[in-house]
Structures are given as C-alpha cells and as structure tokens.
UniProtKB/TrEMBL annotation:
<dbReference type="InterPro" id="IPR037004">
    <property type="entry name" value="Exonuc_VII_ssu_sf"/>
</dbReference>
<keyword id="KW-0540">Nuclease</keyword>
<keyword id="KW-0963">Cytoplasm</keyword>
<dbReference type="InterPro" id="IPR003761">
    <property type="entry name" value="Exonuc_VII_S"/>
</dbReference>
<comment type="subunit">
    <text>Heterooligomer composed of large and small subunits.</text>
</comment>
<dbReference type="GO" id="GO:0008855">
    <property type="term" value="F:exodeoxyribonuclease VII activity"/>
</dbReference>
<comment type="function">
    <text>Bidirectionally degrades single-stranded DNA into large acid-insoluble oligonucleotides, which are then degraded further into small acid-soluble oligonucleotides.</text>
</comment>
<keyword id="KW-0378">Hydrolase</keyword>
<dbReference type="GO" id="GO:0009318">
    <property type="term" value="C:exodeoxyribonuclease VII complex"/>
</dbReference>
<dbReference type="Pfam" id="PF02609">
    <property type="entry name" value="Exonuc_VII_S"/>
</dbReference>
<comment type="similarity">
    <text>Belongs to the XseB family.</text>
</comment>
<dbReference type="GO" id="GO:0005829">
    <property type="term" value="C:cytosol"/>
</dbReference>
<protein>
    <recommendedName>
        <fullName>Exodeoxyribonuclease 7 small subunit</fullName>
        <ecNumber>3.1.11.6</ecNumber>
    </recommendedName>
</protein>
<keyword id="KW-0269">Exonuclease</keyword>
<dbReference type="GO" id="GO:0006308">
    <property type="term" value="P:DNA catabolic process"/>
</dbReference>
Length: 80
C-alpha cells in the first residue's frame, strides 16, 4: 500500500483498510507483517498531522495580529 498520500482522509481510509484486513485474519503472515508496518507508518504520519492541527487551533490571534497560545487548563484564557 502506498504511503505517499498527503490527504488526511485518504491516509485514514488506508489505515482503516489495513486494520480491517488484519482483523479478518485472512492475510498470510508475511503480508500481515508488511501491512502492519505500513499501518504503523501511516499512523505516525496521521499523528504528526493531528498534532500540527491542534497546535494551530490552540493559538488565538488578536485583531492586531498578535498570537497567544491557549492555556491548556483554561480554554477561555490565553497564556501571556
């Protein structure tokens, strides 16, 4: 399975297919190992994309363009 997909949804669909194949158990061991490795690789790529998106969402931008990160303990109050 190719891993050069940049689209989050496409990568997630690929990962779901791998999981389904492995759960069904109808995959020869050698192929299952390859699919598992591919799934781990895709999972790590998706995790990086989600972390990046979370960091972007966690920033508040004032009207003057100043960025403030959200306080993780109080979403209503930005960090100074």
């Amino acid at each position: 399975m190719p891993t050069k997909k940049n689209n989050f949804e496409e990568q997630l669909n690929s990962l779901e297919k791998i999981v389904t194949n492995l759960e069904n158990g109808n995959v020869p061991l050698e192929d299952a190992l390859k699919e598992f490795q591919e799934g781990v690789k895709i999972s790590r790529e998706l995790d990086k994309k989600l972390t990046s998106a979370e960091e972007t969402v966690a920033k508040l931008i004032d009207s003057d363009g100043t960025e403030h990160k959200l306080d993780p303990n109080n979403a209503a109050a930005p960090e100074d």
